[in-house]
Design goal:
The complex is a heterodimer of chains A (234) and B (221).
Chain A (H helix, E strand, L loop, with lengths): L5 E9 L5 E10 L4 E5 L6 H9 L6 E5 L4 E4 L11 H9 L22 H14 L4 E5 L7 H16 L3 E5 L10 E4 L10 E7 L2 E7 L1 H13 L3 E7 L2
Parallel strand pairs in A: 3-7, 3-8, 5-6, 6-7
Antiparallel strand pairs in A: 1-2, 1-4, 9-10, 9-11
Helix pairs in contact in A: 2-3
Chain B lengths: L7 H12 L3 H18 L7 H25 L2 H11 L1 H30 L6 H27 L4 H17 L6 H8 L7 H29 L1
Helix pairs in contact in B: 1-3, 1-5, 2-3, 2-5, 3-5, 3-6, 3-7, 3-8, 4-5, 5-6, 6-9, 7-8, 8-9
Chain lengths: 234, 221
């Protein structure tokens, strides 16, 4: 019988023969609980999420999970050369994405989407699954404020329904409560870029990592948006 | 077992949709058809011998086709699907397409002598040929699965597949190719032990390689 909680018992992890990234980590996330994983670069946030999602098995220790996990990886850069709409339909069913902003990208090949849009596509799919455990690596990356509000609403509903939510977060998600697991290290100053766009009187603000700035700008200009401002996000 | 979040059938369709756009898969398919054309362009002798030879060729070409299909997919999606539905289902979805391709290649490998080989042969020869093609092709696919799980570069994959093919082809006891060629490429019927090993050898190799690929995926995703 699967455990009711998501658990890690004395988990160790390292890459091949490198130094141990996770050492003797034990945790227990109960139904309805939010776990916020924080820490500097290279401290094992994404690795821990892959372990909790069941993507990999630790060489030492044990992960216990109450069921299948809806997992969003940190990067989504190698999606297949399939139309985004087709990919979405195969992942989540034929109803079409809940994220309205994906509608304009469905005819684009998934491997040609900007990193931010590719993550939104995957996020939209994994949030549609009736999984009891959600494991999301930096889910707010590349989302505008409205999308972050929608995301937090979905996560709050899942938590209220007894779901387990684990997020690695660079900036805290605007969700109340949650247990913080700090893996240590120095969190770098927020490097995000704030892009303000306008089209037909409709203004939107995107906050993206610098690496995605050019792709987002290219994409926006190609779709007829005007760029009003590009500035560091403070 | 819980109902999958993404049914295997949809995961296979996802892989197929990505694979059809793969030029490398097209290359492997073309290479297979060229190999058949070259073998049967002139009188290749009674069908059993050339079929043993083309079955041996399906080991590296099946590995090539499988590598192309795996490369056309996405490791991020594999991670997402593994979390959703478990490693077994993802491995099954990743194996289904190559096995389908190999079944098609085995069919053409048997149809070619049926259509173009002037020598009469009993139906059992063609059944034997089909089985040998499937066995060696599956071994090639399993090797490609392992190399993909190990995340070695395409150049190293090519080197390993070619070396494995050459070494196995030269050593009569070393499956998957050696026992097939040793038992079935001559005029005489093989003894019981070589005949059994020509079937069991590729099966053992395939099972070991798939188990190794599954073990590597457990650690590396």
């Amino acid at each position: 019988m699967p455990p009711a909680s998501l658990t890690a018992e004395s988990v160790w992890w390292r890459y091949r023969r490198g130094p141990w990234v996770l050492r003797d980590l034990t945790l227990d996330v109960a139904p309805g609980q939010l776990l916020r994983v924080r820490g500097g670069n290279g401290r094992g946030k994404s690795t821990l999420l892959r372990l909790l999602a069941g993507v990999v098995v630790p060489p030492k220790g044990r992960i216990g999970t109450p069921g299948r996990a809806a997992y969003l990886p940190q990067l989504a850069r190698d999606l297949p050369a399939v139309r985004a709409g087709r990919l979405s339909a195969l992942l989540r069913g034929p109803d079409g994405p809940d994220d309205d902003r994906l509608a304009g990208h469905l005819a684009t090949r998934a491997d040609e989407l900007s990193a931010g849009t590719a993550r939104r596509l995957l996020l939209d799919a994994v949030l549609s699954w009736p999984a009891g455990v959600l494991v999301l690596d930096e889910p707010a990356d590349g989302l505008d404020d409205a999308a972050v509000r929608r995301l937090t609403g979905v996560l709050a509903d899942r938590l209220d329904a007894g779901g387990i939510v684990v997020v690695a977060e660079h900036r805290p998600l605007p969700l109340p409560g949650g247990t913080v697991l700090d893996l240590g290290g120095t969190v770098p100053a927020d490097p995000r870029v704030r892009i303000t766009l306008e089209a037909d009187g409709d203004r939107t603000v995107l906050t993206v990592p610098p690496a995605e700035r050019d792709a987002v700008l290219r994409d926006a200009l190609g779709r007829g948006w005007s760029v009003l401002a590009v500035e560091p996000d403070r | 077992m819980s109902a999958p979040l993404v049914p295997v059938r949809r995961a296979v369709r996802l892989g197929a949709t990505a694979a059809v756009a793969s030029r490398s898969l097209l290359g492997a398919t073309f290479a297979w058809l060229v190999a058949l054309a070259a073998v049967y362009a002139s009188d290749a002798g009674p069908p059993r011998q050339p079929m043993a030879f083309t079955a041996a060729l399906l080991f590296p070409i099946g590995a090539w086709a499988t590598a192309a299909m795996l490369a056309a997919g996405s490791d991020d999606l594999r991670a997402v699907l593994t979390a959703a539905d478990g490693r077994g289902r993802v491995l099954a979805a990743d194996s289904a397409l190559p096995l389908g391709w190999i079944a098609g290649a085995a069919l053409t490998g048997v149809l070619a002598p049926l259509l173009f080989d002037p020598h009469p042969a009993p139906a059992t020869s063609f059944v034997l040929g089909a089985v040998l093609h499937v066995l060696t092709g599956a071994a090639g696919a399993a090797l490609a699965l392992l190399l993909h799980a190990l995340r070695v570069s395409p150049g190293v994959q090519l080197l390993v597949v070619v070396l494995a093919g050459l070494v196995s082809g030269r050593l009569a006891v070393l499956p998957p190719i050696g026992p097939v060629l040793a038992a079935w490429s001559g005029d005489a019927n093989p003894g019981a032990a070589p005949a059994v090993w020509s079937f069991a050898g590729p099966l053992v190799v395939t099972a070991v390689l798939v188990a190794a690929a599954a073990a590597v995926r457990r650690r590396r995703g």
